[in-house]
Design brief:
This protein is of the alpha+beta class and 446 residues long. The protein contains 13 helices and 13 strands. The chain is 46% helix and 18% strand.
């Protein structure tokens, strides 16, 4: 049977490919891409569960994104988090690792990763009988129907004949909502094509992210060298200005020297920013009440001649959630956001900041495990166009006066805390930065 033999299958396939193509352009990062691709496949496949598993460097095959009941296998799933809070983790997982994982030869998932051969159930025999390697390792955790899996499709995700992961789809639904006995040949062809699309999408995004990191490292090296050279020249210039100040100069000469000193201070500011961007971050975290810390920091904003109206709200009516953070570094983050707001909104500025717990849906979408605090920062400036939302965090990208390193340093600080930052405001209505920070953060840089 050839793909697209029916009009329905053609529409399903083309719709999925079109939506995945749009995701490639708009995805926040690799995790965001995986989450959104899985959501698309979940809808197109008409199944009860869909997931993508990738082979990690240690050889384990681990779940990375999921929809349907496969979501219960993720560390940041609401079900697991509830079990964690209620002390029922052992009952929930039977001691099995979360996020879920298989060895390269363990279960059908591990077999697909090892052999690179897809598996499609016929529905004629029980899974354990049809596939001797069927393990049912996470049956207790995932299936909402008492351990019933009537239809299964697993496809290897390959890059140049090298298997990098597995796509799994389970429990096909009939139009009536009942479980189907099995996926059919047409489903197999449609899903195999979409698995190949996923691989191309994933690899392109992975390479783009690698190039971004390589480019950022190159910019750090260049910035360090330029900061050193410019700093030396500026130091020499200030030495000459000190000599000039001791001489008898005409009145306008004193004014010129004073202006030259201001220029030197401006150069020092750029040099210091370049050094901060290019050097390693020394993170020294202490527990702080997030709401109180944010409000005190923002209200002490030092920009002269800028009178902004501030509005604060905290999930906790007092100080908000307690989180471990580096005060100096996070103060730099907030100051940079305020300076950006001031740069685009000189008068009648209004800054709205909410602190609290990040919604579970956001954590899943951003690929963050565990519980996180949220800083929701918004202003009433012009906002940021959609095509600028990601590049504003790139080095030397600026749409106002400055070095173009500010938001790049902000992202560096947030990620050093194990968190994420994204701009998600609506253009024309103001900028909105969302910052997620894990409650439990590493004591060293990744």
């Amino acid at each position: 049977m050839t793909i697209g033999q029916t009009a329905e299958s053609r529409i399903r396939t083309l719709t999925a490919i079109r939506e995945i193509s749009q995701i490639i352009v708009s995805a926040f990062d690799l995790q965001d891409l995986l989450d959104r691709v899985v959501a698309t496949l979940f809808e197109v496949s008409r199944a009860e569960a869909c997931s993508i598993w990738l082979i990690d460097p240690d050889g384990k095959v681990r779940i990375k994104a999921a929809e349907g009941y496969h979501k219960r296998l993720l560390a940041n799933s609401p079900a697991y988090q509830e079990a964690l809070r209620s002390g029922r983790v052992e009952d929930y997982t039977k001691g099995l690792p979360i996020p879920a994982e298989y060895g390269r030869e363990e279960g059908v998932t591990g077999q697909i990763a090892k052999t690179g051969i897809h598996v499609l159930t016929t529905g004629g025999r029980p899974h354990a009988e049809a596939h001797p390697q069927w393990k049912g390792k996470y049956d207790r955790v995932q299936w909402p129907r008492g351990g019933v899996c009537k239809s299964f499709f697993g496809a290897p995700l390959k890059v140049q004949e090298r298997t990098i992961g597995v796509l799994k789809i389970e429990n096909k639904l009939e139009p009536s909502g009942e479980l189907a006995a099995a996926f059919n040949e047409e489903d197999e062809e449609v899903l195999t094509i979409l698995a190949n699309v996923i691989v191309v999408t994933f690899e392109n995004q992975r390479l783009a992210e690698e190039r971004r990191k390589q480019a950022e490292q190159a910019w750090r090296t260049i910035s360090a060298r330029l900061a050193h050279k410019i700093g030396n020249q500026n130091f020499a210039t200030k030495g000459l200005l000190s000599i000039l100040q001791k001489l008898s100069l005409p009145a306008d000469g004193d004014q010129l020297v004073a202006r030259a000193w201001l220029c030197c201070e401006g150069i020092d500011s750029v040099v210091n920013e370049a050094k901060k961007f290019s050097g390693p971050l020394a993170i020294q975290k202490k527990p702080r009440a997030l709401g109180k810390f944010v409000e005190v920091t923002v209200r002490s904003h030092p920009i002269a001649d800028w009178r902004a109206e501030y509005e604060f709200s905290h999930e906790d009516p007092t100080d908000g959630p307690v989180i471990s953070l580096d005060e100096a570094q996070m103060r730099h983050v907030l100051m940079e956001l305020l300076e950006n707001s001031q740069g685009f909104k000189k008068e009648n500025a209004r800054i709205t900041i909410h602190t609290g717990r990040a919604p579970q849906e956001m954590l899943t979408r951003w690929g963050l495990a565990g519980e996180c605090a949220l800083i929701n920062y918004a202003d009433n400036g012009p906002g940021i166009p959609d095509h600028h939302k990601e590049i504003i965090f790139e080095p030397f990208v600026s749409f106002r006066q400055g070095s173009g390193l500010g938001l790049s340093i902000v992202r560096q600080i947030v990620e050093a805390h194990g968190g994420r930052i994204k701009e998600c405001g609506k253009y024309g209505e103001g900028a909105r930065f969302l910052i997620c920070l894990p409650f439990q953060t590493p004591d060293h840089l990744p």
